[in-house]
Amino acid sequence: MPSPRTRVVVIGASVAVVVSAVIVVLSVSTSTGGPGATAPGEPLRDLAAQVGLRIGTAVDTDLLGAEPQYDEIAASQFSTVTPENVMKWEVVEPQRGEYDYSAADELVAFAQEHDQLVRGHTLVWTNQLPAWLTDAAASLSADELRGILEEHVTNQVAHFKGDVWQWDVVNEPIDDDGSYVRNIWYTALGPDYIADAFRWAHEADPEALLFLNDYGIEYGGPKTDAMLDLATRLRADGVPIDGVGFETHLDIAFGKPDLLAAMTRFTEAGFDVAVTEADVRATLPVSEEQQDLQAELYASSLRACLQLERCLSYTVWGFDDQYSWIPGWFPGQGAAGIYDEFMPKPQYTALQRELEDAIGSMPTRREPSAHLG
Ligand code: G3I
């Protein structure tokens, strides 16, 4: 038989267990994604909204609806989404003339449900083309290939008319040395395929903002010069181009780019800009010091964007290390995201702090009037 004192202790302990259980249940029920999905402080999208900046993430649509914490973070932290793969040619037109927009439509619906804008990625590129096209390319006449390109761009942009805020119309057209990438389009059609794609996209959705998008233009040098030259010539020829996307896939081994200087050259030439695919990789395992450097590279790229009224959006290329493209492409490297296993990393906090500091001290962009669901 327990003594009265033991009974009090036992009862006290039981009450404590019940109270903690209630607290756990309450805190989990406030967030469908569980404790990891809730980051301390204001969500990135709420902070960014206070300076009119759209903050985005690439989304792997295979995870939507399959991983609740993924959905929870994608919805609560970001105000734009980019399909990581499902608007690419091999997915949307796997057979000639047969379009499949089902996965991309799901993402558009997700975005509309969560008051997010969509960056369309991408209409014309070198990679992720379907086999029917790459196999046939060499035997097609230039006219036939141009016809296929026109049909594809027109069909895709028309399908998403009114739903896509910014399109990456042409992706990665310039090589590191500043020459044109020798892809199937350039080989058959020369550089005119770029102007044509912008014109067809504009005809299909005159409201969408149309971008060139590329990597490695953050550091200056021949590729940045060539991209500025290309955008300027397109504009001078009356081609409907609005902006240039800076992918911003950074690696701590290459140091910090002067992104502000690079982007300013484009804004001064009259273009909008956007950070479209930010991540910061490092060789694994990452030391604390290296992680600090990763956080600083995230912060400084966001700061550059915040300083420019014409920098319309800042997008990370996926938010969680578990699903990053980096380890598959750069063996031995990784930790490039702002979350890991749905827990915010110092890289997340660095972005949050940068946004907090920007409120009241950085230019405010106008809310985009169109494409709001
Ligand atoms: O869909 C197949 C699947 O059926 C198959 O089982 C699996 C086995 O490997 O592969 C799947 O395809 C993968 C695809 O992503 C979809 O997950 C490809 O192997 C893989 O190579 C592909 O990688 C994508 C890469 O573009 C391809 O170029 C990455 O996820 C994506 O993050 C990356 O994104 C690009 C941007 O579009 C442009 N800028 C650079 C950026 C990083 O490379």
Structure, described:
This protein is α/β, with parallel strands linked by helices and about 375 residues long. It has 14 helices and 12 strands. Strand 5, helix 10 (about 220-235) and strand 6 form a beta-alpha-beta unit. Residues about 1-35 have low confidence and may be disordered. The site of ligand G3I has 9 residues, from loops.
Distinct helical segment count: 14
- Structural class, by secondary structure, is alpha/beta
SSE string = HHEHEHHEHHEHHEHEEHEHEHEEEH
Runs with pLDDT <50, length 5+?
Answer: 1-36
> How many E strands?
12
**Strand order in the sheet with the most strands:** 1-2-3-4-5-6-8-9
Ligands bound here? ligand G3I
Radius of gyration: 23 Å
Shape: globular
Q: β content, as a range?
A: 15-25%
Between the first and last Cα atoms, what is the distance in angstroms? 68 Å
- Mean pLDDT, to the nearest integer, reads 91
Q: Helicity, in percent?
A: 40-55%
- Major sheet size, sense and barrel closure: 8 strands, parallel, barrel
List the helices and strands and how they pair.
Elements: H1 4-29, H2 44-49, E1 54-59, H3 68-77, E2 80-83, H4 89-92, H5 102-113, E3 117-124, H6 131-137, H7 142-159, E4 166-171, H8 184-189, H9 192-204, E5 209-214, H10 222-236, E6 243-246, E7 249-251, H11 259-268, E8 272-283, H12 288-307, E9 311-316, H13 326-329, E10 333-334, E11 339-340, E12 343-344, H14 346-358
Parallel strand pairs: 1-2, 1-9, 2-3, 3-4, 4-5, 5-6, 6-8, 7-8, 8-9
Antiparallel strand pairs: 8-10, 11-12
Bound molecules: ligand G3I.
